[in-house]
Amino acid sequence: MEVLILDTPEAAAELTARVIAKALRDNPHLTLGLATGRTMERVYGLLVRMHREERLDFSLACTFNLDEYIGVSADSPNSYHHYMYEHLFRHININLRHAHLPNGMAADSAAECRQYESAIKNHGGIDLQLLGIGRSGHVGFNEPLSALFSRTREKALSPETIAQNSRLFVGDEPMPRRAITMGVGTILESRRCLLLATGAEKAAIIAKAVEGPITGMISATALQLHPHCTVIVDEAAAAQLENTEYYRWIFENEPEWEEFRC
Fold it and tell me: How far is CA 137 from CA 134, 161, 203, 237, 244, in A?
């Protein structure tokens, strides 16, 4: 795992978008794992701009989203299907047949989870997985006590997640209590992980996820085991990290990041 500290949320999001864009240019057939949430909106906005202004091409790419609520239809404004369409898919030239999300309305959720897991494998696995982090340390909806080798499955949402996400629901639709999510093990099998976190409210959990012990209570700590995981944070989210001098040195000196420093 490597940690990069950028000055502002905007700079952190821009670096994240540029890493994704480079991966897509290097491999037009990229299989990209996608996340949702407010932190990702700026990233997707930048990718849309790159598509429009720099001809960033998504036509051959394939995507798999981390999760979807159970009992929420794809056309609901509260679904992650709707989120992805509004923030990214309708603005770029992706083939929507290659944009995958779990079906929250599947009659058999367990079968849907197995099918989703199989679809990822049939596409050769995920090349680059974009991640956010919840305040309880979850990636996807892998809530506390998620097994570190778990696969795509149904998961009960924690009260903290319900309280946090219910504020984002519009209309009279109730906040679901369950979701389909990629498992921690599924995420760890991606060839590269890229986690973005910004804001002071993420500082405590970022410190635990990056510098704390690996534990099923905080699923993001499993990323410490990944051979190619990059955590990008702004100064506010980095406030409780101990080794900030070294993390800043990595971005300022490692050859891998030279093209991104300008």
Answer: 5, 10, 11, 13, 20
Predicted confidence at residue 141, as pLDDT, reads 97
Alpha carbons 100 and 116: distance in angstroms, whole number: 8
* CATH code where residue 151 lies: 3.40.50.1360
What pLDDT does 96 receive?
A: 97
Question: What burial letters (b/e) apply to 102-122, b meaning 16+ CB within 10 Å?
Answer: bbbbbeebeebbeebbeebee
**Interval 210-245: pLDDT, tens:** 999 999 999 999 999 999 999 999 999 999 999 999
Full residue range of the structural domain in which residue 109 is found: 2-260
- The number of beta carbons lying within 10 Å of the beta carbon of residue 159 is 10
Name the region of 143 (left: φ>0; alpha: ψ -120 to 50; beta: rest).
Answer: beta
User: Rounded to whole angstroms, how far apart are CA atoms 75 and 234?
Assistant: 34
Domains of the chain: total? 1
Percent of the chain with pLDDT over 90: 98
Q: Hunting for tokens 């506390």 — which residue is that?
A: 144
Alpha-carbon distance of 118 to 137, in angstroms, equals: 26
